[in-house]
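The records we work with from here on pair a chain with its fold. Here is one such record, which you should read through line by line:
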Amino acid sequence: MKVWKYGDSINTDMLFPGKYTYTCATPEEIRPHLLEDLDPTFSNNVNRGDLLLVGDNFGCGSSREQPVLGLRDVGIKAIIGRSFARIFYRASINQGLILIECPEAVEAYREGAEVELNVEEGLIRIDKEEFDFPKLPDQILAIRDAGGLLNYTRMKLKEGSP
């Protein structure tokens, strides 16, 4: 697992350039442009299970789904940040991408440190130091496991439950 660390106020244009908003919709179309203006190496080197550690106000800017869809579909396990823009936070829940606010973990991370994340237990380990975060509600984890809110809702409707 690789850890990708970025700073404060990374906006949606840095995550996915606005010029592609109306021409890229599928994961295959989105992937080559993920973070291309922030980190041109990202899309070719990201792997399933990688983590992002980010600063304050991650995902600020315009509301669009491509950054969240792209990060989810390349297999980002979670984004651990100091804080997130609310609209990005909600879009991430809708798409099943896990966001964790844990400023202490972001500050503690140094390049090359070993990072372990247990989303279900609310625990981040960086080398030997542990950081707790509030356990995510079961429903958020179920949305993640279903691949997003739409799939989760379809599954619940088939089960006959609200």
User: Anything to note?
Assistant: The two ends are 37 Å apart (CA to CA). Residues 3-135 form a domain with the Aconitase; domain 4 fold (CATH 3.20.19.10). Residues 149-159 form the longest helix (11 residues). The chain has one domain: 3-135.
